[in-house]
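Key idea: predict the complex, not the pieces.
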Amino acid sequence: MNSGDPDLNRAAPIIAAVRQRAPMVHCVSATVSMSIVADGLLAAGVRPMMTETAQEAPVVTSVADALSVNFGTLSTDAMDGIPQTVKAARKAGHPWVLDPTAIGVAPIRTAMARDLVASAPSVVRGNASEILALLGAGGGRGADTSDSPDTARRAAEEIAARTHGTVAVSGAVDLLVDGSSPGHVVRIQRGDPMLTRVTGTGCLLGALTAACAVVSHPFDAAVAATIWLNVAGERAAARATGPGSFRVELLDALDHVGSEAQTLAERGQDS
Amino acid sequence: MNSGDPDLNRAAPIIAAVRQRAPMVHCVSATVSMSIVADGLLAAGVRPMMTETAQEAPVVTSVADALSVNFGTLSTDAMDGIPQTVKAARKAGHPWVLDPTAIGVAPIRTAMARDLVASAPSVVRGNASEILALLGAGGGRGADTSDSPDTARRAAEEIAARTHGTVAVSGAVDLLVDGSSPGHVVRIQRGDPMLTRVTGTGCLLGALTAACAVVSHPFDAAVAATIWLNVAGERAAARATGPGSFRVELLDALDHVGSEAQTLAERGQDS
Amino acid sequence: MNSGDPDLNRAAPIIAAVRQRAPMVHCVSATVSMSIVADGLLAAGVRPMMTETAQEAPVVTSVADALSVNFGTLSTDAMDGIPQTVKAARKAGHPWVLDPTAIGVAPIRTAMARDLVASAPSVVRGNASEILALLGAGGGRGADTSDSPDTARRAAEEIAARTHGTVAVSGAVDLLVDGSSPGHVVRIQRGDPMLTRVTGTGCLLGALTAACAVVSHPFDAAVAATIWLNVAGERAAARATGPGSFRVELLDALDHVGSEAQTLAERGQDS
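Result:
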């Protein structure tokens, strides 16, 4: 028994496991996208936790199940807190996702992202220009990108080789590279351009990936989260009349895609 | 003449008075929930004001009508600003609400919340695990809770006895303890589980309580705000198709519940 | 060929040019309104960029096309970063908009706003009480105002004379004063009271003005942005059932008003 959607069938067991476990994901996230990240995680059945100071974040992350670090607006608090928080998450053995938003634009965040790559993120997620900038191979002009994911394939593979982790390059076609298995690459062509008309959908993908990595291998987590968000985006686009209603429908769809998947998985266990 | 809903009848005069007065509520609030707190207050007919630095917040609070302090993401700015802001609000004679979000998780915010209890908050609002942690009587694992409000009854009564204020414990059943009248306890079983699927509804309840405390005794304010938000939540849940649309419907309903109540109160004055 | 709406016809070429150019607008914006500013710009076809620290913001603004400075919640980071960011934007020759939110309430932001006026903002945008406070001519009690725009006409003209820029006073009737052409004043009576029931619509107007100033004279930009947002507000109000749904419809309408205008402009080029 299946949904008739091979991508969704692939993601379904992980989506179901996330809903079952309801993992707590600590997000050090952009101020501008914090609301969609938190509401998106709640819609997906995940418990979000947000705090970023050096005094609190390392302690908080140790009681969570995973960490998602998104540079976003990068406050002074976040700059101070991120390195120790990553250290605490690693010490606790938690999966962690690095989302080096808008690197290449300001020297300080580019240097910080490159340092963090040495801390072996379970998943690095970014658009093509961010992944290129992480290797010093491109410029980048903020969070949007004109580069297609495949232009960053070599950079993604090099980062994956260094971290032995997963690198997920977002775009019209998402490219996922598995550093734990050389040559293992997956392309996912799902979603809707409306996902780029709402702030923070990329940040949400990073946080959702961290949630999925609590219940699966990081590469499978990145694949499942990419499918989850993009299928939700397709359904939302079919119902929305503009970017405002798309955001609302996206949150509803994140809840529904998960619920259907859970039902499918449960059926799978019965059959 | 009444709405046929005893809870709403009880809250109606205070809701009407809030709409009439349009109080200005200064919120030192979590970054992640700031938007729903501000939009929720505006929907309720309240004028929100947000700023948290030690340089500005104490001055700003003095021109407002009430203060709501929510730990939330607890930036360095907020850590510095909160103590002086509370002092300024007390000096101005304003009611103030303490919402010790997620205490028990990080030592720094637990200590800070315990210090603030000595500044006699008009209302302390939290879930059971936060109220327990405030007395050192429990752990707590973030903003969500598995403890039912009644497990925190003794802790709530002790805090209420110390502050001579109100303690409001949120949950499926809300428990409200009146420190100005020993033994005076009210339970409210309203609302919908969807209220836990959207970030910041607890923060909004704290801020709405502060608004109601401008026009009524803090205990009555806590009761009215709890009814206001939870009745709005019930109506929103009846119309929503998921957590995204629930958030939209909740804001609409906060506006409507208030308007009906105002009409009821006006009718009450005529009859 | 035209839309039958003289205001919209006036704004249409600028709206079309914004959509065509998709300018990048760097926003140093209130935390509480950051989400509606970013989503509103995206809906309008503009690329938002948010960051505020002194370490990053001056570098980031130089790769953008315009700068919008909104005091909003005024964090320590923003207080440190704004002066250097404005300097960098001016050095790059970018138009920049000053939105002195809530000045008059706290001495620190009033002094800061007055200093910034000396840096010749392309457009100063505020409500009547903010514009009066900028000249030391009034009090102000936060972001809302009871003063009508015309009470601030003299203050607006004096600021416009000093900056040789545009001063836009928001209210039920918007008053726009052109400092580059003495005596040139435009009044726009569009919009809907619902625009005051959602946080951050004023901040969004400032940022949208910055976007329009990339493709036109700052005064025409302020006129076009005022029409764009207010026509969207009218359409949203006609469809909304409360402040929650109004916010959603407003974002949808910002997208639609732009698209229609583009079509009109394209038709205009053909005819």
